[in-house]
């Protein structure tokens, strides 16, 4: 693809500015490891929210969701529940507050806060560190593949005559550029560059949405979509037949196994609720929560992510999809059985974005890659340095030594993640592996850690190991089962291991449990620990907010879906549906204002005076 000089200069200017910010701010980040990994808990919640949103605004995910909207229409807004996308609502309503009350630096350090220093706690600590590093390396590989596909389609230099090799070369180049500013500037660099990247991506997203609305009328779109494509609601069956329009899409739906859509979404919802109750995985999302200045700000940050991420992102997704449906369907039909839906995004950008705006859009999508990549690269070294090097190897090192180790750990994560990407050939491979082998094994142990006092470090270790092993074995033992269908079996293995091993071993130190409960104050099965504390705190009140929290979660999920659907309805000019979606979103916002936001508390009253923050 030939870029105009103006577009090239815009892209180069963005890259230079981003790296410059990393080096400019590196002095502030290098004071100590708390500054490097958490920004010294000084960064305001709305900057962290923009940063978190930017980190989730990735190219690979955008390409995947463009494909989903193309194939499944408005019903595609429910499919990201696979991750599940509504885990952000659980975070916003109560889990971010609980997590931030710990005052720790990483998820592995939180394990010590929850389980103590015994042998079981040490085993739990080790498995969390390994899990965190593997998750981050996988995300690095996921981003590497996405940026390679994107850059090779848009940037003018052909580095290799072999397309796959060309993608890998571009992946290496942009991985190197991003690693420079992340390694140098730590969390400060990540946040400040991601705020810039969010602004660029939002401008690009709005521009694409406007172009799509100008180029495609509802009448034009109707010729290229099947009946019910523009209907967000569903019954047990998908009721979406592409026969005669693009037969290969029917094959895609069949291969996905989502024809019984109502059953699929019911299973996704049940799985998603369990995974959301487990709290965030030890990756960039958790690091943003731990970086906030207070528990209340952690909750605000998680809520803000939904507000600032979904509308502009889905303007981009809907705009690209609509342009591709009307103007690229013939080319896709000609591909026959070899149709590549991941080429929808490059086609729409190549053919409909004018000079100048094209440079901004490409810079924005490069920013999307760099954001998600940077957030991941910043997360793993925190575990390697704080939870391995500092805890087991050199607990008396100077701040400079810890920072230098952080540089080295960041570089190692980038290298290993890149090598992992060379062994995979598609985005779906990584998505499936993340959903199954990693998050499938994570759920049971991390649900119980919040809500059951008798759950101990040994049980946590056993549950994590059993869950991950089951998730890796089940595809071979039950090849006819999808990752979603195998989840209940996996969860059952992990849950059994958690409970059995917890009862077969001694409870954790009661003083550790009392400190955790007193400071975090979760709801759940904590009565024995509550009673232990009554002698010192006779007026101690348990958390009675379960009902209110679950009501707010339900309202929040509806709010999230409405914000997701509204920009799609706007792009396809279904104004009645757009106004209904916005009305639902506003009503949910009012409810959450009075039933969630106004009731946020930093710490339980018994520990407020003892918190040094």
In summary, what is this structure?
The chain is mainly alpha-helical. Helix content is 73%, strand content 0%. It has 25 helices and no strands.
General description of the model:
The structure is a single chain. This protein is an all-alpha fold. It has a domain at 5-117 and 146-425. 73% of the residues lie in helices and 0% in strands. The chain has 25 helices and no strands. The chain has helices at residues 5-24, 26-29, 33-38, 45-56, 59-72, 87-100, 107-115, 119-154, 163-215, 218-222, 247-256, 261-277, 284-291, 295-327, 329-334, 344-352, 357-393, 399-422, 427-451, 457-477, 483-504, 510-520, 527-533, 546-571, 575-595. The relative contact order is 0.16. Keywords: Cell membrane, Ion transport, Membrane, Sodium, Sodium transport, Symport, Transmembrane, Transmembrane helix, Transport. Its main location: membrane. It comes from Neolewinella antarctica. InterPro entries: Na/Glc_symporter_sf (IPR038377), Na/solute_symporter (IPR001734), Sodium:Solute_Symporter (IPR050277).
Estimated radius of gyration: 24 Å
Element order: H for helix, E for strand = HHHHHHHHHHHHHHHHHHHHHHHHH
What's the N-to-C terminus distance?
Answer: 53 Å
Please state roughly what percent of the residues sit in beta strands, choosing from under 5%, 5-15%, 15-25%, 25-35%, 35-45% or over 45%: under 5%
Tally of contiguous helical segments: 25
Average pLDDT, rounded to a whole number, is: 83
Helix-strand category: mainly alpha
Low-confidence stretches: none
Number of β-strand runs = 0
User: How would the global form be characterised?
Assistant: globular
Tell me about the largest β-sheet.
none
Helix content: over 70%
Transmembrane segments: 6-25, 45-72, 78-99, 120-147, 167-183, 195-213, 260-282, 303-328, 355-384, 405-424, 430-451, 458-478, 484-504, 550-572, 578-596
Subcellular location: Cell membrane
InterPro entries: Na/Glc_symporter_sf, Na/solute_symporter, Sodium:Solute_Symporter
Family: Belongs to the sodium:solute symporter (SSF) (TC 2.A.21) family.
